[in-house]
Design goal:
mainly beta; disordered N terminus; 425 residues; 6-stranded mixed β-sheet; 48% strand
């Protein structure tokens, strides 16, 4: 963004105004240092930031009419987060009409925070302003401007949800007139929005590993597009949401590893999360968008008896997940796994199949809100096929799937069907 700096030229009249405000500036500095609400300002920011004034009309990063800005709410800091991308920032706007006579003369103040600064952006319509005062300090003093940006660095201890207030006065012509046609007063308040984080988890096994083999290593990593992330914990959790590995995040540590034990055969599913804590309250927590499954089998002798088919509900919220497992002692040249997902909404389910040689299909039966998943293929002797399904639903809890079956080419069941799944209470 191209900045045009304003140099304030002081006449005898403006020098008198400037001197009269030195005391107010000193008092404002004391208040800023003592008040917790304005503690986000670095020392002398208000003086240094006078040089950030802009002359003339400039394009806003949010579009001419703010169409690219996100709508600010007082609880945005608890439900959302920002990055260095301007389209993620939340803008709170204040407006004053000096003169309603067409063309109306207005001034608008946009307040928002970036990952590093709190911004006050002033824009006028059909007029200019001569003085802008923030918390008793003149940041524009006897200089006609149409647009002006005041940027205040956030200090190292700022946190999401900190409330920043400012008393703003804008004068069109001079500071002696107090009428609404000359003076606009704004009591601004803004709750700082925290910085987004992204947590990822490395993939699980693509092929089964044998009981007693070397441990399989999973790695969880947290990243952010903004400044250096420090504080909080990066963690790996098992399918019971128990933390099995945790590492404190520092300026050099962003990941944690977990060695999945292989003493016993089974399918082990893991997820990852970043949990914020002091001094990382400016960052939002995050959860990995995918889970990872590690499949451990008996290689010295098959632990599958005949054909086996089972299902497990991993998540029963509106964002749902389930695993279906089909294993065969002697192998099957053709099988069809098929079943439904209840109260289905949104785009297609994400179906991930591990093991065997398979193809996948999904369809919506009739005009229902359900979705039917079909996986066809073959599986070798003492091999297992894992079908992981993720989808969105209109409801949470309850039974999340219909009955699922596995059949041969003639429609004969290869193993007993799995009844509708639900999460344990």
């Amino acid at each position: 963004m191209k900045c045009i700096y304003i140099v304030l030229k002081y006449t005898k009249r403006t020098m008198k105004t400037f001197k009269s405000n030195l005391l107010g500036l000193a008092l404002a500095g004391l208040i800023l240092g003592a008040c917790s609400q304005t503690g986000m300002y670095e020392t002398a920011d208000l003086m240094n930031e006078q040089a950030s004034a802009k002359a003339g009309f400039n394009l806003s990063p949010f579009g001419m009419n703010g169409e690219n800005a996100r709508t600010y709410t007082d609880d945005a800091h608890s439900t959302s987060c920002i990055t260095t991308d301007q389209s993620t920032w939340f803008v709170r706007s204040y407006e004053h009409v000096f003169d309603i006579t067409a063309p109306a003369k207005k001034v608008k103040v946009d307040v928002y925070n970036t990952p590093t600064h709190l911004i006050y952006k002033f824009n006028t319509e059909n007029t200019t302003v001569q003085f802008i005062q923030i918390d008793g300090v003149f940041v524009v003093n006897d200089q006609a401007v149409s647009t002006y940006t005041h940027s205040v660095p956030l200090n190292s201890s700022w946190a999401a949800g900190n409330t920043i207030t400012a008393a703003i006065n804008v004068f069109r012509n001079n500071t002696s007139g107090g009428g609404g046609g000359n003076r606009a007063q704004f009591a601004t308040s803004y709750n700082l929005v925290g910085i987004c984080t992204t947590t990822t988890l490395s993939a699980g096994t693509t092929e089964p590993i044998c009981v007693g083999a070397d441990a399989f290593t999973l790695t969880a990593t947290v990243t952010t597009s903004a400044e250096t992330l420090t504080g909080g914990f990066i963690q790996i959790l098992n399918s019971s949401n128990e933390v099995v590995a945790s590492e404190a995040v520092t300026s050099t540590v962003r990941s944690v590893t977990y060695n999945v034990p292989t003493e016993n055969a089974g399918n082990y599913t893991y997820s990852a999360q970043y949990v914020r804590s002091t001094p990382s309250f400016r960052y939002q927590g995050s959860v990995s968008s995918t889970t990872s499954t590690v499949q451990v089998i008996e290689c010295g002798g098959c632990d599958i008896k005949g054909n086996e088919f089972s299902g497990e509900a991993v998540s029963c919220g509106t964002a749902r997940e389930a695993n279906f497992v089909f294993g065969s002692e002697d192998g099957v040249s053709y099988f069809k796994i098929q079943g439904g997902l209840t109260n289905f909404t949104g785009a297609d389910a994400v179906v991930t199949v591990t093991g065997g040689t398979t193809t996948t299909e999904q369809r919506t039966p009739g005009g229902s809100s359900n979705r039917v998943i079909t996986v066809e293929g073959s599986v070798g002797a003492c091999e297992t096929v894992i079908v992981n399904v993720k989808w969105n639903s209109a409801n949470s809890g309850g039974i999340i799937t219909g009955e699922w079956s596995v059949k041969d080419a003639n429609g004969v069941e290869l193993a007993p069907e799995v009844a509708g799944l639900s999460c344990p209470n």
